[in-house]
Design goal:
The chain has a domain of about 230 residues: Aspartate Aminotransferase, domain 2. The relative contact order is 0.17. With about 450 residues, it is α/β, with parallel strands linked by helices. Helix 8 packs across helix 11 and helix 9 crosses helix 11.
């Protein structure tokens, strides 16, 4: 269906989206059961206890299909635990991606290690396995594979490369809890997985994180690093840790707050059903836009056994060449004027931020990124072409939580209308090169 006879809203025409659709986007879904579980912790004065957290870990590891689960106060802390579990230390190199939330990279600094950036695949927004292999040196000890914006990274290739070079694989599943890659749950491919469970994520239980692994040594090292009440010498199977049991090796207190654990237990029971509805809604949205020039879905082919989990922070791919190189900024503003959420870009590339090449965080008298390395601290512009171009070729789309076709179609109409009338937008186009920002929350 064409909308060429309708004037674009940004030029004074009627918008495509009208009415109160807050029910489509409300998240997390908090029920009386959630409230009572949290209140029970508070009423018992058990906020800093472990009973609820231990129960949540047990339920989570069974749901995840892992031998161990360890609850954290944030996803950032969970990544710290994963890095320590993998024995990352001074001068070691950890391969990361650049246009990503800082917590997937900066914890590497804490161990005197060096984040080394590999490029992304433009269609998945995840690490490019070929560039990951190119970035491996004798000092490479781990790769952090982020399932970026819920899209599964190419885990078959990543794990094969890692095995070839004896590199640990840390999966960051913060965007993709419950997602599948070739019919296997994300977070079960690498040596260890870490994830955020903060209130904005698809599996949300407050400010919290989780680590999962099948490796006893990684689990016990993570336990010893930041969970001082739980590294009992009599229970540790990793012999060299027993001498130091009782106190946290890293001087960190990283345990999950029991109010978050309580909410997490309730949320987990409904998560698969809710995530399935999200996927149904998001797939319907993209099905409505199939074949529209200039835009592509950022989604998996579910018929091949790979899914988007809870489809956190949904995005689309922009093909400006099909719209006479209309800038991403002009495109997004036109869609937003129609009444649909749309803003350009993903995360600004970290490798171009001065913190990654110029900041002495710990007083080492040289940039922290290379305090224990002879690497050139700065990646030149152009070194990661896909990462540097991504913010002119991606955009946020509405993240639907409910499958309500009539309402979803209005949002699809907003995108279709702009794409089919793009010629009206070229005049006055400031050729905004893109979006992306350094998120601080």
């Amino acid at each position: 269906m064409l909308y060429t006879m309708e004037k674009l809203a940004i030029l004074g025409g009627p918008g495509s989206v009208a009415g109160d659709d807050r029910d489509l986007f409300a998240w997390p879904i908090v029920t009386k059961e959630d409230e009572e579980a949290v209140l029970d912790v508070i009423r018992r004065g058990a906020m800093s206890a472990l009973d609820v957290t231990l129960a949540f870990e047990d339920e989570f590891k069974k749901w995840q299909g892992a031998k161990y689960a360890l609850g954290y106060n944030s996803g950032t802390s969970a990544i710290h635990g994963a890095l320590f579990g993998c024995k990352i230390g001074r001068g070691d190199e950890v391969v990361c991606i650049s246009p990503v939330y800082w917590a997937s990279v900066l914890p590497v600094f804490s161990f005197g290690a060096v984040p080394v950036f590999a490029d992304i695949l433009p269609n998945t927004l995840c690490i490019d396995p070929a560039d990951f292999e190119r970035k491996i040196t004798p000092k490479t000890k781990a790769v952090i594979a982020v399932h970026n914006f819920a899209y599964p990274a190419e885990m078959d290739e990543i794990t094969a490369i890692a095995k070839k070079y004896n590199v640990k694989v840390i999966e960051d599943v913060s965007h993709a809890q419950g997602g599948l890659y070739k019919n296997k749950k994300l977070g079960t491919f690498g040596d260890v997985a870490a994830m955020s469970l903060m209130s904005g994520k698809s599996l949300a239980c407050g400010e919290a994180g989780m680590l999962t692994t099948d490796d006893t040594e990684i689990y016990e090292r993570a336990l010893a690093y930041g969970h001082y009440e739980r590294n009992d010498a009599k229970k540790l199977q990793t012999g060299y840790l027993r001498e130091f049991a009782g106190l946290p090796l890293g001087g960190h207190k990283q345990r999950m707050h029991q109010a978050s654990s309580a909410m997490g237990r309730v949320q987990l029971r409904s998560y698969d059903e809710r995530a399935a509805e999200i996927r149904r809604a998001m797939n319907y949205f993209w099905d409505c836009l199939e074949g529209v020039p200039g835009i592509r879905a950022h989604r998996t082919d579910e018929s091949k056994g790979s899914t988007m989990g809870g489809w956190y922070a949904a995005h689309g791919l922009y093909v400006p060449e099909e719209l006479d190189n209309l800038s991403i900024g002009r495109f997004c503003r036109a869609v937003a004027a129609e009444g649909a959420l749309c803003s350009p870009g993903i995360n600004a590339p970290l490798h171009l931020h001065p913190l990654l090449f110029n900041c002495d965080v710990y007083g080492d008298k040289k940039p922290t990124r290379t305090a224990f390395s002879e690497r050139d601290p700065k990646d030149p512009e152009g070194s990661l072409p896909a990462s540097e171009a991504v913010n002119s070729r991606t955009y946020y789309v509405p993240w639907f939580k409910k499958y309500k076709p009539d309402q979803i179609e209005k949002y699809a109409k907003a995108f279709r209308k702009v794409c089919e009338n793009f010629g009206e937008l070229t005049e006055g186009d400031e050729k905004n090169p893109g979006g992306g920002r350094y998120f601080s929350f």
